[in-house]
Amino acid sequence: MIASALRPRFIRLTCIFLVTAVLGGCGFHLKNGSGIPNELRNLTLVSSKYSDLTRLIKQELRYNQINLVEPKITSMASLTTETDDASDVMGEDSTQTRTTAMDPALLNSQTPILRIMSESTGSRTVSLYSDATAAEYELSYVIKIEVRLPEQEPQYFTIALQRDQLNNSQEALARSRESELLIRELREAAAQQVVRTLSQVIIEPKTIGNSDNKIELNTEFEAN
């Protein structure tokens, strides 16, 4: 009787596990930004103003209940550059990089700053056909981010994602369209990873006093 009584509960737990696994595989993620320090609940985002990545990161930050604080300066500049071997057709060996500069006035900001330092998309050949033409490419998407907190050294993180793509030289237009879709998927996944990365930021305990005699604010009270 004990086994029969436990069977429905086991079935329910199995169903819950399967649903969670399916949702996780579809890119579903829980709300409320679990694990993100309270010190990062208010952020200034420094990124290329009109890029798709910026839009996606803002969407993810708001979804995880992080308040975006607008900077009090207007001279944040973005610069897009391409390497000498860049190709106009994604799917051939190429690299394209966009970097974002930060106004020096923000260096003394009392609001934590999340800066998207650079966004790179690349492609390289990983296998060849017998006639030495490319058979398969690896698409890569890399973003480098910087997190600055008041009175702390900046912390740097890199998010790198890859996808494989088969080359069909007879359908160049379809291949180009597939590349665009894959890069879009990588960009969406990277935006979600940016928020997860915030949970890895180290928050140093605040101190008072001069550099020779610093006292931690989170000291324990001694018993009387």
Number of helices: 3
Whole-number mean pLDDT: 76
Fraction of residues in helix = 25-40%
Shape: elongated
Write down the Rg: 23 Å
Low-confidence runs of at least 5 consecutive residues:
19-31, 76-89, 213-224
Work out the number of β strands.
9
Major sheet description: 7 strands, mixed
SSE series: HEHEEEEEEHEE
Percent of residues in beta strands? 25-35%
Alpha-carbon distance between the termini?
58 Å
Give the structural class.
alpha+beta
Task: State the gist of this model.
With 224 residues, the protein is of the alpha+beta class. The protein has helices at 2-25, 52-63, 172-197, and strands spanning 42-46, 67-68, 78-82, 94-100, 113-128, 134-148, 155-166, 207-208, 215-216.
Task: Write structural notes for this entry.
The chain is of the alpha+beta class. Helix content is 28%, strand content 29%. Strands 1, 2, 3, 4, 5, 6 and 7 form a 7-stranded mixed sheet that branches. Strands 8-9 form a two-stranded antiparallel sheet. Strand 8 and strand 9 form a beta hairpin. Helix 2 (52-63) runs parallel beside helix 3.
Q: What would the keywords be for this entry?
A:
elongated, disordered C terminus, 29% strand, single chain, alpha+beta, two-stranded antiparallel ribbon, seven-stranded mixed β-sheet, 224 residues
